[in-house]
UniProtKB/TrEMBL annotation:
InterPro entries xref list: S04_transporter_CS, SLC26A/SulP_dom, SLC26A/SulP_fam, STAS_dom, STAS_dom_sf
Family matches, as Pfam families: STAS, Sulfate_transp
One cellular component term from this protein's GO annotations in UniProt: membrane
Organism name: Papio anubis (Olive baboon)
Region (Disordered): 614-639
The protein's name in its UniProt record: Solute carrier family 26 member 6
Domain named STAS: residues: 530-723
Keyword terms: Coiled coil, Membrane, Transmembrane, Transmembrane helix
Amino acid sequence: MGLADASGPRDTQALLSATQAVELRRRDYHMERPLLNQEHLEELGRWGSAPRTRQWRTWLQCSHARARALLLQHLPVLVWLPRYPVRDWLLGDLLSGMSVAIMQLPQGLAYALLAGLPPVFGLYSSFYPVFIYFLFGTSRHISVGTFAVMSVMVGSVTESLAPQTLNDSTINETTRDAERVRVASTLSVLVGLFQVGLGLIHFGFLVTYLSEPLVRGYTTAAAVQVFVSQLKYVFGLHLSSHSGPLSLIYTVLEVCRKLPQSKVSTVVTAAVAGVVLLVVKLLNDKLQRQLPMPIPGELLMLIGATGISYGMGLKHIFGVDVVGNISAGLVPPVAPNTQLFSKLVGSAFTIAVVGFAIAISLGKIFALRHGYRVDSNQELVALGLSNLVGGIFQCFPVSCSMSRSLVQESTGGNSQVAGAISSLFILLIIVKLGELFRDLPKAVLAAIIIVNLKGMLRQLSDVCSLWKANRADLLIWLVTFAATILLNLDLGLMVSVVFSLLLVVVRTQMPHYSILGQVPNTDIYRDVAEYSEAKEVPGVKVFRSSATVYFANADFYSDALKQRCGVDVDFLISQKKKLLKKREQLKLKQLQKEKKLQKQAGPLLSACLAPQQVSPGDKMEDATANGQEDSKAPDGSTLKALGLPQPDFHSLILDLGALSFVDTVCLKSLKNIFHDFREIEVEVYMAACHSPVVSQLEVGHFFDASITKKHLFASVHDAVTFALQHPRPVPDSPVSVTRL
């Protein structure tokens, strides 16, 4: 009995329905789209729901994994904080954070004055950006916050857009400060947008165009700018606002002119504070190994100077300028003034690049020292978010400080937990203790700034070291320093970057050219002028350039090649053309003379001189014989036949191992070299080309019937061996290279 009989009609119908559903699923899997009725659709829905659910689940899992990877990439704190070794690192980070906060407090107050803002905004800039960098940064040791170079750049912008005087009338100080805070916070937002945008599109390599001599020259000039800007607080002078090119010169001249108006009490206060700070720093350097942490000279100076000022009444009795009211508590977020974007865009981009350059250079130094990696693109994003969020909370642009970073590392800091602790300590001061420093003299803050410039001003000694090491780098340093001093910080940076790039171009225009010789019994070829053992291969010249050949140095390459080969190629070619042209003119005159004689002799003489009739076969034999004789006869167009001197080599090999790319000018120059040297009976070969260069030669249609890949060799030795076996070029066809 069959299966259908045993199971009954219902089972048979169910089996057929199941078979139809399986077939529908198979056809749907193979993307077949038949016309389906309602019954088939219901059956397909019952059988096909599970795979579609699995597809949605897989897609959600992949999306979740990508989102998680993206989150971990741009929020590094989620990666390292769960694995934070509390027992090993917490104590060191706690001491380091307290030490950095002790430095951050006076520097924040001082650098706010440097930026042209009330001191409390320096404390805000020491809290918000530091905590944001704790979440997004990848360096474990740099101390983000206020920095002298960034502050003076911000100060140049705030003073130009919100000056002290307007139309010879003094502006109300409260109104002026409010406008400067608005400008500085908007500038910080714009700087953050630039940095975040550059980081997201992976433009972290942009800082590679700022070489070390450029950065050191720029920071040294910025230190001079900072020093000059603090002279008004040291001498108690009221100066006019100067901005733009030569503003530093105008400020120095005005200070010199107003020196007789200096306040003795202010000068004495600044001098005493500066001497005490220098003594404390010298003690810290001497007792570095004995002290568990540096003596907080700046904090002690703040406390002592505030107490003395309050007790002796320096402001009321002696007329010493003090910080004034410091409001307690945090300020609410404020939207940036977008109308200022057009005025700030140039300065914002410059500050963004400079701030990132300083941070990434310090970050890479510490990362190399402690064996971890710093992501330059993520650093851009972290700094950008620090400035972006800080700008919304009325902070000015920040970067990292070299002195605080060194303290954070030397006092046992292992991670950015130290930065978070320092920011929380600053928060405590903002909320509860900030108003205690209202009687702090501004001259003391100026002394703190000037003493902290000691490290950057020491970079003036780079002039002596670079003079001995590298004159080109010294030139970059001097041009950067002079441009920054004379043209201000933003224009100075632009000029220095353009100059350094132009210097690179000029240096590639004048590379080292050399004729190579073979070291005996080896396949090594070296410059015969530098290696006495290297000897030229007889009959072969090997030429090498130390730089790639491109539009800026292609002519120099050709000229140096002809000069080093010891043959005046252009003279030989011109003489050869003159002699060949003269020979053609003589032949033409001779033919004209023969025609003239034939006309004078008349028809009778022509009949007598007419050749006898010959058969076509005889004509062919005579032509063949004449052709054989002509082929055996020497070519009258050779240098030897023309009586011109011949080169003492038959082959020229171009060592192109230094080429990293070729452009159209390079292609034309190489083709002209082939043409010119073949004109003087020298065959040209190329050696040691890299694969990308060969591909570019093919794309540029360099190879043709006269220049084939048979002229290309993997090494100089292979080319020399081939040239010695083929001392004279024997072209397969009479095609010649056309000079371009």
